[in-house]
Design a protein that fits this description.
- 2 copies of one chain form a homodimer.
- Chain A is built from 7 helices and 7 strands, in the order ββααβααβαβαβαβ.
- The first copy, chain A, is an alpha+beta fold and 219 residues long.
- The longest helix of chain A has 18 residues.
Chain lengths: 219, 219
């Protein structure tokens, strides 16, 4: 039996298209810098965090913790000042900032024992936030450009926690609000082809993949 | 305006329920150990990997690489032998194994420069796989219990790559196939409450969250 070609998913809002029929949210989620400078309902913010709560982690340790500030909070400017100026410039129009930290230790281990997958597992919680945001018509943008030591002091992050990223979340806004340099870069990024990412049976090789006559392949 | 209570999402297949109205896939995704010991179409396997391809990463570096083996491959038993015996015992009924590795270096940096978020970003790619799998009626189960040095040698993983996890993917099967000890544990895990994960404005505090009169809160 010959299978139909998986439909090319073409997102009209973005130039992204996928080779295989993935859920549309993986293409509509992207890291916009144009936000509408409006608050978001607290219940929506908590819905994003609820999605993160259900992320998988080794031994269900759940190393992720979230320190959040909403734009209508008296702490908003102080939270923006924890981002490098390049990021603060556009993130000031987001609805909330989430500082994502991870517990580097296995809970209640004595003496304290390293939890090796604390960053990896917390990355999956971040993906849950980003995907739930896109599902709701928001977007979430992760930032590596943040002031780690200042964050640790100001947000009182314990030594045993690692500061992973900060996330700006909000409703997509008019790119015309951005500075000309940022406006030019305001487009969803592309990706390496699967052929450069997937190997079988060993690194750098692909001949181990099973190809059946009854299946079309879309390399 | 008073908002309606978000519907309690109750997954009939699992005892999980959420406090906020998240997409159902975050609850239906879980780490089953009961698989049906059947192959999965290669196009479906590639669809999972396509979802991972669109994960976000710092500077769009895309540090994730996937070394896959399908159960109908001549390399299947060799791939199973890279898991610790506890995991190999149930993962032998999966349709495919994916060894997920991450590039620890910034591509083309000279001298080689560390890419600090290689594990975190690869964790988001793992979440994309797991969620796309659940959307398709499959499940993906990540394993930390694997033989790292044996994997590096057998799968020829370069020194600059970190071995993150192995993933078993397949169609959920009859839990009666499992050994009695595993059968007893065959249920979706629960999670810490949001109140233990979310802080504002600083670690350990929650009084910084904005509570509006027009919103119900579900702590």
């Amino acid at each position: 039996m010959k299978k139909a070609n998986p439909a090319q998913i073409q997102n009209t809002a973005t130039p992204r298209s996928s080779q295989y029929p993935i859920d549309e949210v993986f293409l509509t989620r992207w890291s916009t810098r144009a936000f509408d400078a409006q608050p978001m309902p607290t219940v929506d913010l908590k819905t994003l965090l609820e999605a993160a709560r259900w992320a998988p982690s080794a031994y269900n340790v759940q190393p992720w913790r979230f320190i959040v500030t909403q734009r209508e909070s008296i702490h908003w400017q102080a939270a923006l000042d924890l981002l490098d100026p390049f990021n603060a410039d556009w993130a000031q129009n987001a609805s909330a900032l989430i500082f994502l930290i991870s517990d580097t230790q296995i809970p209640s281990s004595e003496p304290p024992e390293l939890f090796p997958s604390h960053s990896f597992d917390t990355g999956s919680a971040w993906a849950h936030i980003a995907l739930q945001a896109a599902k709701m018509g928001y977007q979430a943008h992760a930032m590596a450009g943040i002031f780690h030591e200042k964050i640790r002091q100001q947000l009182r992050v314990p030594k045993s926690f690692n500061i992973e990223i900060a996330i700006a979340v909000g409703t997509p806004g008019d790119p015309q609000m951005l500075s000309p340099a940022l406006r030019e870069r305001e487009a969803p990024s592309q990706r390496l082809p699967l052929s450069e990412l997937v190997f079988s049976p060993v690194f750098g090789h692909t001949e181990g993949l099973v190809h059946r006559q009854d299946e079309e392949d879309h390399p």
